[in-house]
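Dear support,

Our group has been running a series of protein-ligand predictions, and this particular one with adenosine-5-diphosphoribose is the one our PI (initials K.S.) wants archived with full inputs and outputs. We had some confusion internally about which version of the output was final, so please treat the block below as the authoritative record. The input we submitted was:
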Amino acid sequence: METSPTNQRGLQDAAALLRHSAAPAALTGAGVSRESGIPTFREAQTGLWAQYDPTELATPEAFHRNPELVWQFYQSRRADLAAIQPNPGHYALAAFETRYPDFSIITQNVDDLHERAGSKNVIRLHGRLSANKCSADCKGNPTPIDYTGIESLKPPPCPHCGAPLRPDVVWFNEMLPPREISLAGEICASADVLLVIGTSGMVSPASLLPAAARSAGAMIIEINPQISEISRIAHVHIAAPSGQALPALLRLLESTSL
Ligand code: APR
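Confirmed final output from the archive:
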């Protein structure tokens, strides 16, 4: 990793905090998957879907208005995801669980790259692209439905009630899953170091978690090539891509744990 003196210092400071940490955790956003080839939300959507505003595709109203269009948008993203691999940043975070057995990742991402890289303790605030549920929550919220077909151009019917299936992701104007947001709050209240990686910090309630962690005494380490809404409360900011910074940080930790 080509490291500026500022980032070299940031890595050293972050490693020093983590070396003395008993309960680190991480909050990730779209930036951690950027080096796997998934555009972030603040970048323009590319290709066919660039003509649509996300609110035309990722809201309950959009699904009610045009279920086929929304279903095809998500089927297209699922097909794209099938060809995408975790990057070195995902693998480095998975290795943190070896060093810190209770290490948890709170993610806003709906890809499954953290799990595919080997992370076990992943709290998903915005759901999972590869999962489907009944759009009528006919057996409770959520009513997960195991459907992996990729051929259908329109949402298949729920086998229980016949309502159309929908992706099990949180759309704009929807509440986050209560269990996950509560667990994320508990983790941030007890973490002594919180890594905040690849998020603009623009979408609540996830964006409120770093400030809650800092108020509870956590040191905040941000990894983001840009300044974000989180930067002003970060104790350390490593302005580098996470696919480079996280492996470099892990090497520093491993080189001094001997
Ligand atoms: N490494 C680390 N960070 C990166 C990288 C990288 N290689 N590339 C880009 N970033 C940073 C950008 O600078 C930006 O600050 O990742 C951040 C991505 O921000 P957003 O696109 O806003 O994504 P995110 O913060 O995850 O959005 C939160 O908003 O649209 C909703 O539900 C959606 O979960 C999403 C939520």
